Amino acid sequence: MNANDKIILEQIIEQEHAERAASSPKSEFFEIFVAEQVLKDYDLGYDEIESGIVGGGNDGGIDSIYVLVNGELAQEDFDISPLKKGVVIETVIIQAKLSDGFGETAVEKLTAATEDMFNLGNDLGSMKAVFNDGVRSSVANFRRIYAGLASKFPVLRFRYTYATKGASPHPNVRRKAEILGERLKALFSHADFSFDFIGATELLAQARREPPAAHNLILSENPISSSGDVGYVALVKLRDFDAFIKDSAGKLRRNLFEANVRDYQGSTAVNDEIGASLKAKDNEDFWWLNNGVTIVAAKATVSAKTLTLEDPQIVNGLQTSNEIHHYFRDSNTAGDERNLLVRVIVPTKPGSRDRVIKATNSQTSIPLASLRATDKIHRDIEEHLRPYGLYYDRRKNLHKNAGRPLDQIVGIPLMAQAVMSILLQRPDDARARPSSLLKKDDDYLMVFSTSTPIGAYRVCATIVRKVDAFMRSGATLDSRERNNVLFYVAMRVAAIATGHRVPNAAQVATINPASVDDDIIRESLAVVTMIYDGMGGGDQVAKGSQLVGALKSEIETAIP
């Protein structure tokens, strides 16, 4: 290790901790920092990264754990039903320590936890005294997904990372990691296993690495361009398009598809037909049989049959892109000279990009909620929040990549959870369905409506952020417990602040966030945790209906 790497890394951590998460303990921020670096290529938001933090008492040496299915974070409400074949389940387990070296004990703990938790014959419920709720819930989520997809023979990958500020580990520590791999193979004989030791040098390199904002797309011939160079139509070799959508490790670059209104639908009639036409290699060129893809970019320039695209987003053609990726990954593609039709659009006016997304997806029936990020209400919220120092992540990770503080970024899912908890008084749903809360049109229309005073959205988001910051600063609850009670506390805080048992949107909008002080939050947190602990605590209590019922009864007593 270069002698300066550790010093520079410590400076970066100190600065980012102060700028992005000052209310969190430094050790907890380091866990987030490490997870962000390890999972950088998956383009996760802060809330998604924090959802995997499970460190605390009885964590089995696991600070964070993430289950990714085909490169997408699979949270507790992840829907596996659309997945048909070619499924990859990747489990990422991270140990992050602010120490100056690597120890054998940490790896031994991971080995013991692996043998206990990933042995499918062991009852997770019987391990409450050994492993905390967060660890057990994360492993239960893996088991649910794996069991549900077992008949599809998914590829299993287990990726362990042990990160410190140290240099290379001692050979004895590396041997412990090899033993862990042997124990895992005894449980899942066909699983891929890796164990990475990441020290100061590697962490520094990862922190410096940024996903490229500009990408080159090689064209078959010179493109047709519109006046003003705001759009291009071109044919692209299938192999060159596959190279465009893959990263250096050969994985599909998920961040290219953030603006697409639907995720990959797996084995459907349409996708099977696309896959069949790719494999057929008949006399017809592929672009004759396929509508092609549409890409929106911030800037596009042409040079020698190469389009350089700045911040490209594939807004239509995700299904085609995935099938092409699978074709080049799984089939003999030697000599394939077929082409794909590609449209590149460079919007010049605000709102044009969103209209392109809607228009290019109008050929098929898409639920209203799928187009949520392009709705006017979200532009209104974005503009309303900005003067108050809140950044609405209407376009995922825009503000994270700009280095905004964690507690000033509000994503669409978090806003939905805040509104669901405070205006609809359904904190149980907000906790239980973090990633699928808006998939039902009825829920979406209740949460995001132009008839709701715009100020109510700011107040809801601010209350949730203030409650979260208060709980972090106290450091009496671990990350999982905070997540379990957060929306219940926010619900009670809003009721007390308005003086109404069930405040409506207009009443919530009148709350001055500055009046929501630590005393109100402290009192509400004490009430919620007393009821929560009295019911036994844990994820099931937070997701169930009894806790919210008991809290509503308490609010009726507190507000005559």
Task: Specify the structural class.
Answer: alpha/beta
Question: What Rg do the Cα atoms give?
Answer: 25 Å
- Average pLDDT over all residues: 87
Q: Note poorly predicted spans.
A: 363-370
Compute the number of helices. Answer: 23
Helix content: 40-55%
Strand order of the largest sheet: 2-1-3-4-5
Percentage beta strand: 5-15%
The biggest beta sheet, please?
5 strands, mixed
- Based on Cα principal axes, name the global outline: globular
* Total domain count: 3
The CA-CA distance between the termini, in Å, is 65 Å
Q: How many strands appear in the DSSP assignment?
A: 15
Overview of this protein structure:
By secondary structure, the protein is α/β, with parallel strands linked by helices. It folds into three domains: 3-208, no CATH class; 214-360, no CATH class; 371-558, no CATH class. Helices cover 46% and strands 14% of the residues. It has 23 helices and 15 strands. It has helices spanning 3-20, 26-38, 46-51, 104-117, 133-149, 171-187, 200-208, 238-245, 269-280, 286-289, 318-330, 352-360, 376-385, 398-401, 412-422, 427-432, 441-447, 454-474, 479-498, 505-509, 518-534, 539-543, 546-558; strands spanning 64-69, 72-73, 88-96, 155-163, 192-198, 214-218, 224-225, 231-237, 293-296, 299-303, 306-310, 313-316, 339-345, 391-393, 409-411. The strands form four sheets. The chain has a five-stranded mixed sheet. It has a five-stranded mixed sheet with strand order 7-8-13-9-12. A three-stranded antiparallel sheet has the order 6-11-10. Strand 7 (224-225) and strand 8 form a beta hairpin. The chain is globular.
